Amino acid sequence: MQLASSTPSPGSVAGEPAHSATHARLESEWLDPTLLADVRRHGRFDAHCLNCGGCSVACELSDESLTLPRRPLRGVLLGLKATTRASLEPWVCHDCGDCAIACPQKANPAESMRTLRRYLTGQYDFTGLSRRILRSKAWHLGALGVVFAIVLALLVVYHLYWAELTMTDFVGTALPMEHMFPKIKYFTWIVYGIPLVFLTLHAWRMQRLTMGRLGVPLRHYFMEAWMIFVQVVTQKRMRQCPAEQRRQRALELFKSEGKEAGVHLVPRRWIKHWLMAAGTMAMLVITGLFLAWFQTDAVHAWYHPQRLLGYVATACILWATTDILVRRARTPRAERRPNALAMPLLLWLTAVSGIVVHVVRVLGLELTTHYAYAAHLLITVPMVVVELPFGEWAHMIDRPLALYFHAVRLRAAAEQPSEAGLVPVHTS
Amino acid sequence: MIAPRTPPVGAALVVGGGVGGIQAALDLASAGIKVYLAEQKSGVGGVMAELDKTFPTNDCAMCTMAPRLAELARHKDIEIITLADIEQVEGSAGDFDVTLRKRARFVDESKCTGCAACAEVCPVELPSAFDHGLSTRRAIYRPYPQVVPNVFAISRLGVSPCQGACPIHQSAQGYVTLIAQGRFEEALQVILRDNPLPSICGRVCTHPCTAACTRCSIDDAVNMPALKRFVTDQFPGYELPKVTVADRPETVGIVGAGPAGLMCAWQLRQQGYRPVIYESLPVAGGMLAAGIPEFRLPREVLTAEISRFTNAGIDIQLNTRLGRDVTLDELRERHAAVFLAIGAHVERALGVPGEHHAGVLGGVEFLRRVNLEGPFALGKRVLVIGGGNSALDAARTARRCGAEQVTIVYRRTRAEMPADPREVEAAENEGIAMEFLAAPVRFLASDSGQVTALECQRMRLGKPDASGRPAPEPIPNSLFPIACDAAVYTIGQSPDIAGLGVVNGLEKSGRGALRADAATLETSLPGVFAGGDCVTGPDVVVTAMLAGKKAAISIDRWINKRGLREGREYEGPFKTAYTVDTAGVLMKREVNPPALEALERSATFAEVHTGYTEEQARAEASRCVGCAVCCDCQLCASVCGVNAIDYLQQDTRRHLKVGAVILAPGFEPFDASKKKDLGYGRFANVVTSVQFERILSASGPYGGHVARPGDRKTPQRVAFVQCVGSRDHERDYCSSVCCMYATKEALIAKEHLGAELQTDIYFMDARAFGKCFEAYYQRAQAQGVNYIRSRPPVVEEVAGTGDLRVRYVGDDDLMHAREYDLVVLSVGLTPPASAQTLARTFGFDLDRFGFCKTSRLAPFETTREGVFACGPFTEPKDIPETVMEASAAASRVLAMLGPARGTLIAPTEYPPERDVAGQPPRVGVFVCHCGTNIGGVVNVPSVAEYARTLPSVVYAEDNLYTCSTDTQERIKQLIVEQDLNRVVVASCTPRTHEPLFRNTCREAGLNPYLFEMANIRDQCSWVHMGQPERATEKARDLLRMAVAKARLLEPLQHGHAPVTKAALVIGGGLSGMVASLDLAEQGYEVCLVEREKQLGGNLRRLYDLGTGEDPQAALQGLETRVLGHSRIRVLRSAQVLHVDGSVGSFESSLSPNGAVERFRHGVVVVATGAEELNTSEHLHGQDHRVITQLELEHRLAKSGGAWLPPTVVMIQCVGSRCAERPYCSRVCCGQAVKNALRIKQLSPNTHVVVLYRDLRTYGLRESAYTEARKLGVVFLRHDDADRPVVQGHNGALKVTVRDPQRAHDVAIEAGLVVLSVATVPRDDNTALAQLLKVPLNSEGFFLEAHMKLRPVDFATDGVFVAGLAHSAKAVDESIVQAASAAARAAGILSKDAIELEGTLSQVVREKCDGCAYCVDTCPYQAITLIEHAHDGVVKKIVEVNETLCKGCGTCQATCPKQGIYVRGFTPDQLAAQVNAALEPV
User: Fold this and answer.
1) Cα(first)–Cα(last) distance of chain B, in Å?
2) Mean pLDDT across chain B, nearest whole number?
3) How many domains in chain A?
4) Residue B737, min C-alpha distance to chain A (Å)
5) Residue A18 sits in which domain range?
6) Predicted complex ipTM
7) Chain B residues with CB inside 8 Å of A58's CB?
8) What is the reported pTM?
């Protein structure tokens, strides 16, 4: 970690830049006293922080350009709504939990950061659906239920009126495969199209909220564009999150003092998360862009790249989601964030139902395959349509974008310190 | 208050001897209550004694406290019980039965004079608790030099495991400790105390001590035998200690000069007996001489040892065999008693065929012949049968006698061999072979009868037998021969009692030994005792010595016709009754004693072991872990001049009957090692604040030189980390004192090391809330103490430098790291370790943190009636609050025990005073050695000698300790015998000892002022340690001066000022009412003057205390009680017009409703209160939506929460902490938090934003702050310079403030702005202060006598202050101070008259011309100018008010005409002293 100057100078010297480079300077901001309550509707957010800064010292990701997690949390506690909505720090945090160990007040800043991210996801979504879904179990399940019902209806309608099948066909006969994959292409595109549209709007709004007032020249966005790719593919930032070993030590220390652990250890969590993300991403790409190749009636040999790719992606998803499910299920109910189980469960079910579809199809059980595929769609489509743009999954785009914007801000600040209230980065 | 039942007990118990306990004890005792002060430690003083300076005045803590300690020590009605634990409490308020256990001190408190000679010789060094581990103290110690009682104590757990295991209970830890320090001669003396045969024992004793050594569980036992031998080797010519008692006529006959006989003889010799030893062999030593080969115990060592016995007067008659040369009857006739210690010299037969063949012989015989006649060859191949030490001795001797092949035949295996494994190994190295699992069956012989082989049976190990070892079982058909030229069997010896003849009626035991009583060693013949191998069968040296020791005790008792049996259990064996904590002891293997090479040594009889070098010995000895703490070397006892050391002291139990209890157990500093990340305990240069306090102290570990512990480097950069163990999740309270003490320590460190010292204080809120604290904090900032608003979670060490790195996120919200030489952790206050026990024993409740539970309205009452608590035991707090609470608790006790006051205190009776008027001076001089304190430097006898030559001196002597009880008696006797009328003592300091000697004079019928003291210790021997001759000269000078003055001394009498038992209380608010009630309940008349129409003051405006208690109900209750009390007169709408007189007899003019009334009283309590600042800041008074906290409180109480707007903004520090009022109003933060919580309670959706500079919710108020944050109350800090701005904005209020962390402004739309306005002193304080002749501080509040220890007193006696008139404070604090003022006032009112000092100012009427120079200079305003008619003209003269005068002498120094002087310091006396100093000698 890099540190600011260690020469003896008082903590805050008049005249020196007194705040970090990446924050817009706002001359006067109205304090919104409802902010904390609003954020708290997205999960737990302990307010008894003493503003001591211990959490930020403990955070491995804090550096001279940004201070985690005190600064964003403090913004919420004070009621600085505009600042909070413009902040990118919550996305830089990768939830290692060190701050929760360090906090002398046991105010669990790590959990507050999670809550804050949920809040921000809701803020980026202009429809307001996201806010409702993230805050309310009823809305969440309702949304999933509605999409489920629509898909079910579509399935019935399709079979009865488009494919003109009778009920007896459903019940008794062997259905040929051609009713399935070749015809589902457009449906799939529509299904992927919906979240894509919303996510684009989501990203645009996020840019407005976080970067809008800074007026950073467009070229900086281009210069840093590769950042999105890097972050999506490598999840580099997460890997910078503190080494597990060190956390293990801290945890032992914690336990030796007879305290309950406030965090859950995830050994090699970057790998796990990467596998899950990569698997999911791969699946999305295959099913979205290479549908014809992937969803085909042809059963390739087991070593065919099409099959192998599918297997690998499925295995990744299955393993990672199982792990997450087990872990989250073990967390006491009181400490679990709302709907913590929904997302991994849906993903897990998707993988499992996908496997079932694949197995029965390879076995040539045509009718069963039909039913299994219907079930698969009933699980997958609501997940993609609801979770991706409005639910927890939105972080797939929020995180890389935030890191990208952060890089853009840094670049802009380094180049044009005077512009847009940006101050130069302390170089060391 | 309790209703009086049966008359209460007129005594009280105070638990805890810190400032709180001391204050409570003094207040109670001075008002006539007998006090027991129980302290867990060995002396009182508490934490304040450890402090260097006190804030905010930077006074020396010890200097402030020492007079208080001295007062405590000599108060006749206070009994200090140290090392006391409360065990049980029975009974109820007014009549408690308390059982306490007083742990043994091992020093007689009544004898010890505190001279410290013992600590100088004590070899045991321990980490000093007083210096918090930064220095060491000895096992015999006193925590600090000024401690009360000024006596030493020994940290002594009892018998160490080694000492317990030793049959003769040698102080093994003692000599080992001394060896480790290179003090070999003292080590030898310690050894010789118990053991007259050390050079032998160091070589051949089996040393059971080593098996018990605690180090066995770590690595190896400390090699005590080798160490003992080493010591004796250093002093080859040593002798046994001189016999100090007179010779006795009785002689004792001892048969056998073995270890038992020798030991017995020496023990008896020490008692003055003349023992005679009869030895059958031509040499003395018994088995030592005959059985132990020379290579283990050289002859010259043995001979030298024996000669020491004969040198000591013990007669050894060799070649005298009992039964042959002398008979038992003859011995019985010849001697007063007889001890039979003939040993066991007969080898037991092997019992196999062929053992009489030539070449087969017993080990005893073989060794005896070699030892006495010299080596002889046995043959080339020698078998030795047996597995004990004798077998090894025989085998190794045979080897040295030329045998080529020596084989030990043993029926079990090596593991079962009883011999010392080291000896076995040594034998093997010398080439001795072992044949295990072979049992001899028969010897085979040649025709000539010469043995040729031993036929053996092969054995195997079976089940364990009675000895616990596996029993060998024969393997059938496994006979095999071992060829040999000779065989030695060593399977055991028995005593040769056949030679004694069973005649004479001596009984035998079954095993062929003598029968003797196990405890007393009596035989069946009266006066004949037996012990050692001849009774027990063969055993080791030290067991025989034990027998000798026991026999000597029995014989002494027998001769003196005392019972032989009782009390023998005290001789041991001793069990170690404690466990030794070896955690953290480092592995360090034994230093192997050097020995000759195996090949080299096996050919000669030269001693195998060559002995440790000095270096090796010290290294080995330093491995001792010091199990018993006190090592029992008893050196302290040997140097103690007053025989105060008592190792046999036991814990005792005491039962006390007391009417009430005040608990003042103090606090425990937070254990900083619990915060592992901060590095305490891991990094040498991370210290706690209490340690740093000691580092700063001149009496501290580095003598006041500020250094860091790691390398004693002078630090240039020091960091203070605040809130260590405070304000966290587990301890949701503020420790209240840390911000200030860190500030103080930073300032003092700068004072020591220069202004350029970098001092950074890491803090969250600067809690400078106390009186004058804010100014102190500002001053610190001005002097460069740097405050960094952050709480660093981690301190790291910079590798290799010992420097430390602190990482923090500053107010700029950026990460920083700074490096320091020293990091000080400001540790918080946690409940005392004894809290749980006290709560259980007394049956009261603790709060969730473990502090004693109290309430805001009864802040010093526990939940058990009659048991009060004060100080940090109830909540973390500073010294003045502690002192006030102690007095307050005392006030309640005084009210409770009122009827019994004075019943348990005994007036001291003195003999009538002798009239010495007109007598020529007859001076007696006593010069003190003070142990070695003076005597070690000054030639004291010569000073005493010199004294005799001085004029008027009729008697002079020198004493080891003039202050010891027996010398005091002697002085009294001499005053009478020698008809002395002046006494001079040349010794230590009058500060501690003058009262004692004056009292001695008084007890001898002499006026106490006929005493004079010369300080030849502090001012002479201590400061001129290196120049003894010149010091002696100076001592003479000092003494001569004292005598010169003494000759002119005159008797002085104490004046008395009568006391009017009534009090005037000015101010009818909470403080005034509480003070009035307390005084009235204690039985004094009170006049309460209130200028308003009704009582209550500011309390009328409070509706909520944040604790659920209702202040208005409390107010009503108080008012009813005050108005209804028969002894309280309430004057409302009244003012004090005039106050005359002084302590004890004031007279005031009061004006109730315009009338004027006079009131006579003995004391005044000022409780005039303060008021809320009337401000126009922040639109107050212009906009109705801007109100004060008190107004808000009123509206919340009256109108509930419905009227509240959506957002309420509170602004702190309105009118406080500003240029105009540079003080903190203390209560506002707590009030804001309380009101915010109230708002959240009444209207949960109302948003509250508190704008503050430092949130000062000190003590347990912190929890409310946490609670408010949890509920979402927004606390927004702003910098001191960036004050919030309140403006109108679209019909609402806009509050703008700068957020320092983001450096931008934040605007809040407020429906209501609440101002926390300053508490300001009343305007008329100045007038009242002038009336009462008491001072105000620059802020306009009344200024107490001393900020720490006299917080309710004024420098003017008889006037006290309480409540807001003193400074801003909360309800509970006002109650405390009011009750405290009542207690202090009661100290005066309880007396019928005030005894004045004898040494006060005296006006010389003839010389005073009324120039009045002295009037203004008198610091106590005790002098007034009066006019009187003299010879028809009006003459001016000054007059001294003796109740105000303190005898300081300022007037005397000012007067140009010698018209005023201080009695006891007359110009004549002083002149005589000066002349004596200048006199040529």
Assistant:
1) 69
2) 92
3) 2
4) 19
5) 2-124
6) 0.85
7) 793-794
8) 0.86
